[in-house]
Amino acid sequence: MIKNIAFIGNYPPRKCGIATFTSDLLTSVATNFPTNRCFAITINDVDGGYKYPDLVHFEIDEQDITAYHRAADFLNISNVDVVSVQHEFGIFGGPAGSYVLSLLRRLAAPVVTTLHTVLSKPSLEQLRVMQELLTLSTRVVVMTERGKSILQDVYRTPASKIDVIPHGIPDVALESSQPYKEKFGLAGKNVILTFGLLSPNKGIEHVINALPKIVQEVPNTLYVLLGATHPHEVASHGEMYRWGLEALAKTNGVDQNILFVDRFVDLEELVQYIAAADIYVTPYLDENQSTSGTLSYAFGAGKPVISTPYWHATELLQDGRGILVPFANSKAIAHEVLDLLTNEKKRKAMSEAAYEMGRGMVWSKTAAQYMDSFEQAYIKERSINGSAMNLDHLYKMSDSIGIFQHANLSTPNLQEGYCTDDNARALILAVLLNQLEENQERSRTLATTYVIFLQNAFIPETAHFHNFLSVDRNWLDAKGSEDSHGRAIWALGTAIGREPHWSSQAIAEELFTKALPTVTNFTSPRAWAFALIGIYEYLRLPPITPAAVVDGIRGIREDLVRRLMDLFDKVAVPGWIWFEESLTYDNAKLAHALIVSGSAMNNRPVFEKGIRALRWLIEVQTTQHGQLRPIGSNGFYVHNGSRAMFDQQPIEAQSTVSACLAAYRITGDPWWHEQAECAFTWFLGNNDLDIALYDHQTGGCNDGLHPDRSNKNQGAESTLSFLLSLAEMKLETQP
Fold this sequence. Notes:
Layout: E1 4-9, H1 17-32, E2 37-44, E3 56-61, H2 65-77, E4 82-87, H3 99-104, E5 111-115, H4 124-136, E6 139-142, H5 145-155, E7 162-164, H6 178-183, E8 190-195, H7 204-217, E9 221-226, H8 231-237, H9 240-251, E10 258-261, H10 267-276, E11 279-282, H11 293-300, E12 305-307, H12 311-316, E13 323-324, H13 330-341, H14 344-358, H15 363-385, H16 392-397, E14 407-408, E15 411-412, E16 418-419, H17 420-435, H18 440-457, E17 458-459, E18 464-465, E19 468-469, H19 482-498, H20 505-515, H21 525-538, H22 547-571, E20 582-583, H23 588-600, H24 604-621, E21 637-638, H25 650-667, H26 670-682, E22 694-695, E23 700-701, H27 716-733
Parallel strand pairs: 1-2, 1-4, 2-3, 4-5, 5-6, 6-7, 8-9, 8-11, 9-10, 11-12, 12-13
Antiparallel strand pairs: 14-15, 16-19, 17-18, 20-21, 22-23
Helix pairs in contact: 1-15, 7-13, 17-18, 17-19, 17-27, 19-20, 19-21, 21-22, 21-23, 22-23, 23-24, 23-25, 25-26, 25-27
């Protein structure tokens, strides 16, 4: 599906880790997915830029905000499918690197942002920039689980939006160091290696202070310090840091045991230096370092690693795959280096463990994980913000009477007839489609069909609705369920509140006012909730009905709200913040009803209980991987009982999307929008089985998830659940 990918970041010949990473990622994606066109957009930190390869199609001067605007225009006219951003606060212009936001705001394509730094204690400016960056990004990539945890805990990013993809590494063999030692004139030496651009936060002085003890016991030890001084360090302080390290080595009497290789080496030479090493050391001083490319390279090559416990090292070196020493502790470094140099068996075991894990970090596998992230972002963006919706299955399932209940695969099952439940849902969808200007003439025709179905279903003598209608046009029940009645109220209220000039407005108005009072005799909390949402929709615009009628509607709202509040107060306890002693079906609608009613009534306690209940439901329905896991219909979930994992029904995803969007509209909290996105992607494959339920070819949606497969039938409830979710998500993106 993806043909054009743009990579934004630093790029060689600029000398820095981000530049190397951007180049390696682009090359790996292009190599492993050769049908894709990949190119780079680079950030220049010096006047005149750099002599880039042809893969660089546009250059941005770091401190020129208009260049970011031009870059966005360039990307939009280039028809890119996905934009991959490499983010580090220091590489973009503006306060806390904020200029990049002006580029991302203008992009039409989805953005997948790789965070090379994840701060647990950001400044206020950094927090603001990061929060908007996360909002503008369709997906976010971090390289460690710790980074993911910080995004969730500090920035409230939903887990479903985050991909943990390790730093890519070259695929090298695990082989003897001797040939490479000979190549560099290091034969007979025990080689300790640290490589990367030098700067004071690297803690190199602590290794130099450990060398006297090491050399005293193992005299043939050589510490190779590979890499030029960081360009920003040179610009600020020249070579003062390197000179200080050289002076320290002389003072410690180990200047003959250190080899300074003062240059930025290419990948081929770097791999050879790593191969020559016996031990790799990263003595970095910043615990918050969430990513280290140098650590990844050495580890993946099977080198025994000694490191300070910054986040990336702590995660990568656990379970005996490396050794951690305290920060700025030369004595501990010396002890662990000597232990490894004098214990070949331990060194070999550590090497093999690291190398084995490193096979999952090679660039070919990392590129595949990135492509999966790109595809998820592309599918989601296309589904929500793409071209016209595929309504073929909706049209196929509908005739002049209404929408059929069931389907055999994608073929309407005529023998099962129609029901009020589905025609009410279909009416809501038709109204939303008209708002979206999706084939408005057809949408209004469908809306009229569905409202006439509800009119025919209405029983004037009892003010109830029938529910089930056979294919030969006979009603199969004396009266329908309370829930189907509530859904009819919800649909009619939506049609009235959102389509004030519609030709069937009078029919909907009459049905609504006649059928609503009946709900006060019901005992179903869901029927109450559906009716409350219908009342909320009905009152969106100034009613055309007499004031006395409107007062009566508001009185019914107060009565139904009180009933739901009484249920909540009676049942909710710590650990079970809900209205009933079980979670069954269409669960989010109960919380949804209180959220919108409390907001409309300006009743904060009602609103807050709705928010509390919905937040708890989200927690219950979210897996450790950040995916939506609806309550299964095969047993549901009784308080203090076991929870049914399957069958998972599309209606649960839809009600979650709708409730979260309502919470987002009222609170403005982006967390709720992200939860709606998470629930929506359940339809697209972000679920327990990694199976897409939406069929983009037919426009239908499969009837739920079984433990091992999806139900391939594409009935009305499931298809309407997807289309309603999509329509609401699309409406939310409209200005």
